[in-house]
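Case study 2.
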Amino acid sequence: MTADSVTALVRRRPARRLRARVLVPAACLLLIPGCTTGSPGRGTPPTAGFTAGDDGVDRVEKARRVAAPRLTGESLQGERIDLGDYRGKVVALNVWGSWCDPCRAEAPHFAKAAKELKGEGVEFVGINTRNRDKTQPVKFEEDYGVTYPSIYDPYGELLLRFPKGSLNPQIIPSTLVIDRDGRIAARAMKALNEEQLRDMLEPVLRER
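Prediction:
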């Protein structure tokens, strides 16, 4: 091997090492399924019709709302759930996973609000995602007293059916409020306490 070829080889090696350093972290980001939260508007185009609120809740004027997809699936208890059956009610639709710390933080607030608001025409429905079997999410419901049903969606397929810009499937927990006509009225891409949840629901409840 000549001196020139040795020099050329040495010059090429740092570039290879640099490429490896870039590719490995990028691959790791794709593989990590951790609980992700973000700012309310992240990843959402302005055409979604939402107006950001100071409270972290985005709302849509009644005339600009779009229909939520008619989701169907099996609950964690094996019963069939059809979101279309809730037409005429205000629905709080919560996306959660038992592996998610913010989901655990908000669960007692949702469980309490669901029981207290049921008589006012509010129904709660969950979408459980990224749990590869039902054991842990069922235990989650038992631990936090969650009595409303959740559709089991381990691979997030249902989340991809929402209108573009209305829901970011990478941000968990997320909550959508669906009005009596089955349209998306509000969303929060963060954990909520009971007061925040009620503030999100009440304007839609007052609509007639």
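The longest strand covers residues 122-129.
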